[in-house]
Amino acid sequence: MSEPLIKQGPVQETSLTLVGSGQAAWALGSALHESGVRVQRVVARPNGRGAALAQRLEASWVPWHADQPLPNHWPPSPDQTGPDQSRVTLLAVSDDALPEVASFFGTDQTDALVHCSGTRSLEDLAVHPARGVFWPILNLSKAVETTWKGAPILIQTEDASLHQTLHHWAHRIGATARDVTEVQRQKLHLAAVMTANFNNILLHWGHLLTQEWGTHRDLFSILSQQLNEFEQNPQDPLTRQSGPAWRGDQQTLESHLRLLQDDPEGTALYRWFSSLIQRLRDQSPT
Ligand SMILES: NC(=O)c1ccc[n+]([C@@H]2O[C@H](COP(=O)([O-])OP(=O)(O)OC[C@H]3O[C@@H](n4cnc5c(N)ncnc54)[C@H](OP(=O)(O)O)[C@@H]3O)[C@@H](O)[C@H]2O)c1
């Protein structure tokens, strides 16, 4: 992997083709459109939400399924995009569908090809020499408005012009762009899944256990204390571990398991975490 490229020279305006109409396509498409990046067309499977997304982004709607060639009027000529505009295609499709969908977007179709996955390889876009990754470390959703200000967007590309374009996009939407290698990005993706995605399941249990009284807000201070510590303190969070399993308070563990007796999934989760915590405590030097 080569060193990250240095930004230089004026940024070429882009004409964007967005492929997909799921959560990431809505959130990224909306942010780019609202920040003034021209979304020229939305390409997505006919039965999805592509038409509605195209309308929202004031773009053309191209229904397309990957078992067919791209439509005849593809690609747009330079007169349609404007001679000074670079045609960039952003693939916002499921990770598993990326290689197949990407295979349709060679140099005849687009000037550069980008995906927004945290984990898929840049080489999934090998059909195009100007390829890149634009991965926001955020939960993206159609339903909840994304807070882009200061959010990290990880960029990976070896193409100088595309590098400028991707940094420019991140800047326009108010995010903070950073160049990464493939391994760094994939490890961060794994870390995001294990911390944020898995943690949401624990928040689900927080909700289940408090919903009868609506007391979930009482958990906010302990949760934000933990997040603040994680933000401020570079030490391994294990050095701040507490709770009944860490202390070895057997009666408290049993009392919690009794409270969970009608919840087999909660019981399994509690047992698994408690024995993990005890193993880590036993291995811990402190
Ligand atoms: N959501 C997030 O929080 C988030 C954050 C950062 C990055 N990403 C990345 O964004 C990308 C899209 O994720 P998402 O969350 O938007 O997923 P999603 O909501 O499930 O949407 C997936 C999109 O891919 C399309 N698709 C699936 N299989 C396809 C195929 N074989 N051919 C053509 N289109 C196909 C779907 O079309 P239909 O609508 O027709 O099914 C849909 O438009 C992924 O690479 C993901 O890693 C997501």
Which key features would you list for this structure?
single chain; 286 residues; alpha/beta; Rossmann fold; N-(1-d-carboxylethyl)-l-norvaline Dehydrogenase, domain 2; 2 domains; 10 helices; elongated; disordered N terminus; binds NADP nicotinamide-adenine-dinucleotide phosphate
Can you offer a commentary on this structure?
This protein is α/β, with parallel strands linked by helices and 286 residues long. The protein folds into 2 domains: 14-180, NAD(P)-binding Rossmann-like Domain (Rossmann fold), CATH 3.40.50.720; 186-283, N-(1-d-carboxylethyl)-l-norvaline Dehydrogenase, domain 2 (Orthogonal Bundle). Helices cover 41% and strands 15% of the residues. It contains 10 helices and 8 strands. Strand 7 (152-157), helix 5 and strand 8 (176-179) form a beta-alpha-beta unit. The longest helix has 29 residues, at 182-210. It is elongated and about 70 Å long. The two termini are 38 Å apart. The relative contact order is 0.10. Mean pLDDT is 92; it is low at 1-7. The structure holds NADP nicotinamide-adenine-dinucleotide phosphate (NAP). NADP nicotinamide-adenine-dinucleotide phosphate binds at residues 20-25, 44-45, 48, 66, 92-95, 97, 100-101, 116-118, 135-136, 139-140.
Unreliable stretches (pLDDT < 50, length at least 5) are: 1-7
Output the CATH class name of the largest domain: Alpha Beta
- State Rg: 23 Å
The CATH architecture category of the largest domain equals 3-Layer(aba) Sandwich
Helix content: 40-55%
CATH domain topology of the largest domain: Rossmann fold
The fraction of residues in strands falls at 15-25%
User: What count of domains describes the coordinates?
Assistant: 2
- What ligands are attached or bound here? NADP nicotinamide-adenine-dinucleotide phosphate
What composes the largest sheet?
8 strands, mixed
Largest sheet: spatial strand order: 3-2-1-4-5-6-7-8
Give average pLDDT, whole number. 92
Distance N terminus to C terminus?
38 Å
Principal-axis shape = elongated
- Helix/strand-derived category reads alpha/beta
**Helix segment tally:** 10
Total DSSP E strands: 8
List the secondary-structure elements in sequence, H or E. EHEHEHEHEEEHEHHHHH
